[in-house]
Structure prediction request, 199 residues.
Amino acid sequence: MLTLHCVSGGPRCCRGGCLVAGPGEVGVLGSPCDSLRLLQGAQAAVKISEAGDQGAEGGTPGEFTFSADPSLEDIRRLQAEFVAERGWGQFHQPRNLLLALVGEVGEVAELFQWRAEPAARAGLPGWAPGERAALAEELSDVLLYLVSLAQQCRVDLPRAALRKLDRNRARYPAHRAHGSARKYTHYQDRPPAACGPQD
Prediction:
């Protein structure tokens, strides 16, 4: 049985009708919804636990990890199905998706605007549950548009990201870049400076 964690617990969760549970309770999906189609119609236990969900509450200090499921391919497929069911493919050209992505990044930035440095640190200390839920929603919009853009541009995003990480490892050797914020060009081997003409 698959256990899922609800980030918002609000009426938008599971289309506001198929979830039968309150915060901290275990519920059963009454019908499949778009965001949980990966369950393939099977009923699943859904535990709503805002305090236990690092995405909802920031979790405990220490290392943060994402859920193993769904995969990025699952998200791509679910988003593609969502778009196809609504006939929105005609609007999802790369240019449109890029502009929508930039708009959503702006909405994420708006949530951080005017916050003092302590409230913008890792873990987001002092953020209310509603603020965290809003951030999770906006970051999800960014992810969905990014995945859609990659699909339309035929970029295999997981493999491209791994290639980029390999390239960054070469550009920023750990033994040279540790603790430094300098650009990778600083770490490139440079030829010795040319000497001027001798007298």
